[in-house]
Design brief:
The protein is an alpha+beta fold. Among the domains are: about 110 residues, Cytochrome Bc1 Complex, Chain D, domain 2; about 160 residues, Jelly Rolls (Sandwich), CATH 2.60.120.1560; about 220 residues, no CATH class. It is about 45% helix and about 15% strand. It is built from 31 helices and 18 strands. Strands 1, 2, 4, 6, 7, 9 and 12 form a 7-stranded antiparallel beta sheet that branches. A hairpin with a 7-residue loop joins strand 6 and strand 7. Helix 12 packs across helix 13.
């Protein structure tokens, strides 16, 4: 029997490419014994006419033969499933052709070899734009390092006017949440009818977004956040019976903003004669709260309060269209009309702010005889910092001198310069036109890689003095920068993206079945996860393995009651050690388990997808049809695991769910809000699971602890973490930096005891100043570095 090409092409229209290979073997077997062929020979004879000589696709089957399955998985799929019917491809033949396909054009590395990735010219992302503008203006204000103490500095006065002679008490208050009763802060030292207090310091914003500040008091109050002449909350003149006052402001995450809160107790309508008759003083209390983006109101915790007033930060509040995150990280590779309009509006607002604060930022008095010359010098500094490099003489004439010549007064000239600079591609795009990186490119790559912002003064000086010429010099700068709070904020954002909780989902549960779960508990759980990440990934060791294996939960009194810890009802957040059989790493954090669950049941599918895609780096196809989970009411006697197995049993589902479900099943001991359970619907919980690695090895798990240990020590999980962190820091595909970049970073990650902060240094340094010729060759072949 001979194989006719027309027959093979006809089948390929409806069959998978791997099925075609197996079909060819079946026909060959029926035709009788022939000489043993290599995988390449078989492919060229039987498949190239339909799929292209390099798997690029052809008329019969236009899709390219590419994917992320391992050789073992490809071979197993062919041997077990192809072709349909009783006759299957022999395992040795399946292994042979799978190996050829994988090495020639299927695998990610083969794809890179056949079509190398490029370092793409990118605009600033929304986050980078806002940070860059904030730091650009902040560079003209005095730098103040935040101190280690937490809380606000409180000054208490026995009068109402904050007169220094009436100052009775100074102290560090961890929070502003006081009930002074009728006597005042200290009995016998304050007039119970009249006293005042002022709290000063700074407030640290964890997230970027709109914050609502709330002050609750029966008396007069004013609140300033991030400077300004006008208070955010002004209830100094008391009217009516309002005891709660609110004000909203947009803040950038990872930064501290100056805060001043003034309080005055003044008993109106009670004169001295009435006091002598013993008229009782009214109660006095005050509480300072906030509502973080998409979270419930809470007293501002001590960890977010600093006693040092830091300089004002300018925040661009212009709405921006979201950046593209279709491949897992923010990219600035596309420009839309909405983005162009947003950057224009932001530049206009920024120019107005600079002019309104011109004396402060430039240091030039309005009556200075040489004001114009000095303002030109200020503008030159402004543009150079915006462009991340010194100006040429031509640029000096274009951006500075022409604007001052065309403007009717210095203020308008400054406004024109700021607008021109912030709308220039030299500000809006990364390393525009630079094919061979110089010292200023190196400084920019470091600062955007670790801070998503402009180089600071020390980086600028290093670039100007030749201090960024060697890998050792670059690494020293990266080590300095990674200790900055901005580096932690960028890592924090990555960890939340990595765990798919960066958008702070609206978390709600079935109140009939889980009545103790409300908005306050949801906010507390979010805080619990954030504290876990900060103390684990940014702690002394910053060990990736601790993310998977730590036995700590961060609980307050409210959460302790729900999750079985022995804490007082009003206890603040603190680390609580739990038995290893109960909690093991980030996957068993209640907030994460609650997010990846339904209203009243767990969800092995959602949890399994998180593990497969994000922690193991596997690629999953979208479901072939709209998916709706089976309602527990339809099968009231089944466990969640049994319902999921029933729904995903059909073969079209099992291709992906054969990977997803066994991973998600390992977390079945945790209910819809992450509480431990031993039974569901009267049946014992089955938390066993499995995973077949890319190498083909089947790993079995008895529960979450086995899975955590595997993720902590798996080279596959390490590689996924390194690649995803690289993409988040650099905003470019890792393979654009050469085929050795990922394995080299994996090796250094292991050599450095899986220290995440050290990994950030290595990524930033390696991409700022390429240390090997292979990288330089990649850059020279294409793309703008």
């Amino acid at each position: 029997m001979s194989l006719q090409p027309v027959t093979f092409r006809a089948i390929s229209v409806v069959a998978s490419p791997l099925l075609l290979l197996c079909f060819a073997w079946t026909l060959r077997a029926e035709a009788g014994p022939k000489a043993v062929a290599t995988g390449q020979q078989i492919y060229r004879r039987r498949c190239a006419s339909c799929h292209g000589a390099k798997g690029e696709g052809a008329q019969g089957y236009p899709k390219p033969l590419t994917g992320t399955r391992s050789v073992g998985e490809l071979a197993r799929f062919i041997a077990q499933s192809m072709p349909p019917g009783p006759r299957k491809c022999p395992a040795p033949d399946a292994q042979k052709v799978a190996a050829y396909i994988y090495d020639a054009f299927y695998s990610p590395l083969a794809q890179e070899r056949n079509r190398p990735a490029r370092i793409v010219l990118s605009r600033l992302t929304v986050r980078q734009f806002r940070n860059a503008v904030a730091d650009l203006i902040g560079s003209f204000r005095p730098a103040t390092a935040p101190e280690a103490r937490r809380g606000l500095h409180g000054a208490y006065f026995k009068g109402r006017d904050f007169d220094s002679k009436d100052r009775v008490l100074d102290r560090l208050d961890p929070q502003v949440q006081f009930d002074f009763g009728t006597m005042g802060p200290i009995p016998d030292k304050f007039d119970p009818h009249h006293f005042s207090a002022r709290w000063e310091g700074s407030v640290f914003a964890p997230d970027t977004g709109d914050y609502e500040f709330i002050v609750r008091t029966e008396h007069a109050v004013r609140l300033w956040v991030d400077g300004g002449k006008q208070p955010l909350i002004d209830a100094w003149v008391k009217s009516g019976n309002d005891t709660e006052h609110r004000g909203s402001i947009t803040l950038l995450g990872g930064r501290a903003y100056p805060l001043v809160l003034e309080f005055s107790k003044s008993t109106q309508g009670v004169d001295d004669s009435e006091k002598k008759k013993g008229t009782p003083a009214p109660n006095a209390s005050i509480a300072l709260l906030w509502k973080r983006p998409r979270m419930a109101p809470e007293p501002i915790p001590a960890r977010c309060l600093l006693p040092t007033p830091l300089p004002e930060t300018y925040v661009v509040s212009t709405p921006f269209p979201p950046d593209d995150r279709s491949i897992g990280y923010d990219r600035g590779t596309s420009v839309s009309k909405a983005w162009d309009e947003a950057t224009t509006a932001a530049a206009l607002d920024t120019a107005g702010y600079v002019v309104a604060h011109l004396k402060e930022l430039s240091g030039v008095p309005e009556d200075a005889a040489d004001r114009k010359v000095r303002l030109q010098a200020f503008c030159r500094q402004f543009v150079e910092r915006a462009f991340r490099r010194p100006l040429t003489e031509e640029q000096q004439r274009l951006y500075i001198e022409k604007q001052f010549q065309a403007a009717p007064n210095p203020e308008n000239a400054v406004k024109r310069v700021v607008l021109f600079a912030l709308m220039s591609p030299r500000f809006l795009y990364r390393e525009l036109g630079s094919r061979t990186p110089d010292a200023y490119d190196v400084a920019s790559r470091l600062s955007f890689g670790l801070w998503d912002s402009l180089p600071d003064e020390e980086l600028r000086k290093a670039a100007a003095s030749g201090g960024l010429a060697t890998p050792e010099q670059v690494r020293r700068q990266a080590e300095r920068m990674v200790a900055d709070p901005r580096a932690w904020n960028k890592l924090r954002e990555f960890l939340l993206v990595w765990l798919k909780v960066d958008q702070t989902p609206e978390l709600a549960k079935n109140q009939k079945k889980i009545p103790e779960f409300d908005a306050a508990v949801a906010s507390d759980l979010r805080t619990s996860l954030e504290l876990f990440l900060e103390n684990t990934a940014w702690g002394e060791k910053a060990d990736y393995r601790d993310l998977m294996l730590s036995d700590r939960l961060f609980l307050n009194g409210r959460l302790a009651k729900i999750y079985g810890a022995n804490l007082p009802a009003d206890a603040p957040f603190q680390a609580v050690t739990r038995p290893a059989a109960e909690r093991c790493g980030v996957l068993t954090q209640p907030y994460l388990l609650s997010c990846f669950a339904y209203l009243d049941t767990s969800s092995p599918i959602h949890r399994g997808v998180l593990i497969a895609r994000n922690l193991l780096g596997r690629t999953l196809q979208p479901p072939p049809a709209a998916f709706a989970p089976l309602s527990p009411d339809l099968h009231p006697n089944l466990t969640t695991r049994q319902r999921v197995a029933l729904q995903t049993k059909p073969s079209p589902c099992n291709t992906c769910h054969g990977l997803i479900n066994p991973l998600g099943y390992t977390l079945e001991r945790y209910d819809a809000i992450g509480r431990l359970r031993d039974k569901e619907n009267g049946q014992p919980i089955d938390a066993t699971g499995s995973y077949r690695s890319r190498s083909g090895k089947l790993v079995t798990f008895s529960g979450a602890q086995d899975l955590a240990r595997y993720l902590a020590n798996s080279e596959e999980a390490h590689a996924a973490f390194v690649e995803k962190l690289f993409q988040h820091l650099v905003k470019q595909p890792i393979r654009a930096y050469g085929p050795r970049t990922l394995p080299d970073l994996e090796r250094s990650f292991a050599e450095n005891e899986y220290n995440i902060r050290r990994l950030m240094v290595e990524i930033a340094a390696d991409t700022a100043l390429p240390p090997d010729k292979a990288h330089r060759a990649t850059i020279s072949r294409g793309g703008n570095p």
